[in-house]
Amino acid sequence: MGLITAVTVLCETNGFRLFDNIRQAASYAGLDAVLKEPGKFKGRTGISRKGNAAVRQCLFMPALPVAGHNKNMQAFYAGIVERNPQTGRKAIVACMCKLLTLVFVLWKKEEEYDENYLWGKDADKAQTKTDRRAEAPSADKGKRDTACPALDRPCRTAHGLRSSLNRSKSTE
Fold it and tell me: pLDDT tens digits for 81-124?
């Protein structure tokens, strides 16, 4: 995901200030699943599309290459398509929702993206509680406090998005 996409998502969602959980953010973006039963067709689900179209629009194009090249997202996409080969577009929409989840979690936790991070059920098997406790103090190494112009509060910046925002703001 590029800088422009990340900034667009953060601006359209106001830095996720109004959301307590990812379901609220997905609903705001219109990526939440709703049951659609028009007439004879029972049990069909789709996205609501009642949310912010700009967020959905800017997440669609990054979801295409991510579904093919990111190993975690590739497995997620393949699992959906494997169940029903005709649902390619629905799998991309699911990847869009997963990208929004990723942006939400990284922004709220103020962490950097780690491509080797294990998602889902495999994560619990890979790390025990003692491993997590041992890694917790070292997670803050290399991060520094700076003022974030978007949120008017100090941010832990170790990733390029916030630091590049600060540089572009200071050069203007």
Answer: 999 888 888 899 999 999 999 999 989 988 888 877 776 665 55
Beta strands 153-157; 33-36: pairing state: unpaired
Determine the Cα–Cα distance for residues 136 and 127; give it in Å rounded to an integer: 12
- Residue 60, Cβ neighbours under 10 Å: how many? 15
> Which structure tokens are listed for 156?
């832990």
Residues 57, 102, single domain; the answer is yes
Considering its fold, how many domains does the chain have in total? 2
Q: Which two tokens stand for residue 60?
A: 């669609």
100, 124: one domain: no
Helix (H, G, I), strand (E, B) or coil at 44: strand
How far is 168 from 68, CA to CA, in rounded Å? 31
Asked if 97 and 151 sit in the same domain, the reply is no
pTM of this prediction?
0.65
